[in-house]
Amino acid sequence: MRASERIINEVAQGLRSLEDAVAWFSSLEQVERRAVLHEVVRYSMQAHATVNDARDGLLRSGVKPTMTPAVLIVREPILEQMGKIINLPPSECVKSFRILLSTFAVADARRRETECRGTCSHAWHNLS
């Protein structure tokens, strides 16, 4: 399992803090940051993230609701908005990461409770 995959999923499962993940993300080069943002969006798509997940994620992210990625994430269609978020200027990357990762965490928790409850064989859902 890649470091990014492990860190993202550890945050989603409450095994790692969002602040720890943000510190790791902030240490990456810009190209790597973009790749991680794309990865979080892919995971969010797999978890079938909704705007309601995004609203809850935004509350957890610590990002002000007036910031550009925050305004985008709570609009439909969510996948289109996520695409806009990952293409924001580099100065928005950390806020974007916080919001996208928090949204994924909410969506993934819902998925683990519904689709994967008791029968999950996904390696990323069995980290502990």
Quick structural gist:
InterPro entries: DUF5958 (IPR046002). The protein has one domain.
Keywords:
mainly alpha, 7 helices
Provide structural commentary.
With 128 residues, the chain is mainly alpha-helical. It has one domain. The chain has 7 helices and no strands. Helix 3 packs antiparallel against helix 6 and helix 3 runs parallel beside helix 7. The longest helix is centred in the last third of the chain and has 22 residues.
Itemize the secondary structure elements and their pairings.
Elements: H1 3-12, H2 18-26, H3 30-46, H4 51-61, H5 68-73, H6 78-86, H7 93-114
Helix pairs in contact: 1-7, 2-7, 3-6, 3-7, 4-7
Q: Number of helical runs?
A: 7
Largest sheet: none
Indicate the proportion of strand residues: under 5%
Order of helices and strands: HHHHHHH
- Shape from CA axes? globular
- Runs in which pLDDT lies below 50 for 5 or more consecutive residues are none
Report the end-to-end length measured between terminal Cα atoms.
Answer: 14 Å
The radius of gyration computed from the alpha-carbon positions, rounded to a whole number of angstroms, is 13 Å
Indicate the percent of residues in helices: 55-70%
Question: Could you tell me the mean pLDDT?
Answer: 91
Tell me the structural class: mainly alpha
Task: Give the count of structural domains.
Answer: 1
Q: Would you count the extended β strands for me?
A: 0
